[in-house]
């Protein structure tokens, strides 16, 4: 196998992903447990494990086909494997970091010092992680990455420093930064835990140190858990008073132009995602001033395949795809009953849900399997929206297909959006109607606490019944029916004409009694009951 002047070979890269995968596999439950929610929805460790495992599997397959696989090709396989296997926000960020790190190694030349190459690769990986997030939050994996790369750059500047010294310094700085994350993010301080994504990154950096030194570093010692407090995860999603236009374009630009571009676009709107590298970038932002967003791209480089969608009204656009073009919908379903509902409405289903969220590669495969020129993607889960966006952009880059992501944050929002899907409309009109419907579908759920916690509604103990409103634990009780009625009343507080109830595993009776309650207490409101079969949530609720 090829070895380049900086001493890194295909075999060493394969050894790294092997060790990192095994280490994340061993730590995944611990990382998943660093969760500020009282129900086991936190799957950061699982997502990061599956992301790195996908990169490892892709590289193993490539080496199996070509034992003397050149390093440059191996790094390309690693990057793509991580991108396609990325799951959840943590997996997406990690895949971007691995891609940026690999890109710097491919650019290395014979005259460069090993320590400098590795440190700059880490620095570029950190920059990529920040660039992948619209509005970075400190106290997260980003902070840990920055501490590691800063330490790497500092150590690389010392006379006689070797690559192994850089890895050791970076891993130690990451472990130290992880311990300070509760000081930077109130949710972590309230819960008495460190950031889960940061902990996962420490595992990956420890694996890099092991490969370079042959020794396993002393793992970080975490303090005991206090009572976690759930907080809704802020997301870059559409709101009623948000920007009116979605602007997307591919951009040919030098890497050093992306920082100023992101700053300019961040000042214009929200939902900012700039992903790419190597001279080609994919730009997505929601703004009110379309011209300014495009001008920012022109200042940075050459924008092309520009697409503008108006969320409020139809806009005449010469680039609009004809309404006669074949169109498909891909939906993520969290249970067998939900899958049947989506399939019955004509959607291609990707199975998912907490603990087994779909990867970028799975969504990309579903998009391609449709054989359609236009695809609407319904992630139906807040932690899968970014994965869906990357799958959409990747599909567009790879072929003649147009893909739009409806930012549905819950299964019931996806059902609502699919109910108004109309292939006879233009693509932009259809996406606009589905987006608006999903956005206005108020959603809630009923679940059972698996651990002690301090929720927004007060403390809960294992076995307590929790009512969820728009992702926030708003009700604590002991009776499933009473909590279900409370959730329904809160959702109907803003008005509504239709209540949709989706029964989960063992939740058929709860759903039937909730439907009876609605019919008695709100006779003017229609109620529909479905068998969803989802795990962990006996009842999902939406009001339209």
Q: Could you explain how this protein is built, in words?
A:
- The chain has 544 residues and is an alpha/beta fold.
- The protein folds into 4 domains: 10-213, Alpha Horseshoe (Serine Threonine Protein Phosphatase 5, Tetratricopeptide repeat); 236-319, Alpha-Beta Plaits; 321-439, Rossmann fold; 442-543, Hypothetical Protein Tm841, Chain: A,domain 3, CATH 3.30.1180.
- The chain is 48% helix and 17% strand.
- The chain contains 18 helices and 16 strands.
- A 6-stranded mixed beta sheet has the order 13-12-9-16-14-15, with helices on both faces. A 4-stranded antiparallel beta sheet has the order 2-3-1-4.
- The N and C termini lie far apart (60 Å).
- Mean pLDDT is 85; it is low at 1-6, 223-240 and 312-325.
What keyword list fits this structure?
16 strands; 544 residues; disordered N terminus; Rossmann fold; 18 helices; 4-stranded antiparallel beta sheet; 4 domains; Alpha-Beta Plaits; alpha/beta; globular; 48% helix; 6-stranded mixed beta sheet; single chain; Serine Threonine Protein Phosphatase 5, Tetratricopeptide repeat; 17% strand
What is shown here, in short?
This protein has 544 residues and is an alpha/beta fold.
**Termini gap:** 60 Å
Contiguous helical run count: 18
Beta-strand residue fraction:
15-25%
- Percent helix among the residues? 40-55%
Structural class: alpha/beta
The biggest beta sheet is recorded as: 6 strands, mixed
Within CATH, the superfamily of the largest domain carries the name DhaL domain
Overall pLDDT confidence: 85
The total domain count is: 4
> Radius of gyration, Cα only, in angstroms?
24 Å
- The name CATH uses for the topology of the largest domain is Serine Threonine Protein Phosphatase 5, Tetratricopeptide repeat
Classified by CATH, the class of the largest domain is: Mainly Alpha
Q: Unreliable runs, pLDDT <50, ≥5 residues?
A: 1-6, 223-240, 312-325
Placed side by side, the strands forming the largest sheet appear as 13-12-9-16-14-15
CATH architecture level-2 label of the largest domain: Alpha Horseshoe
The total beta strand count reads: 16
Shape: globular
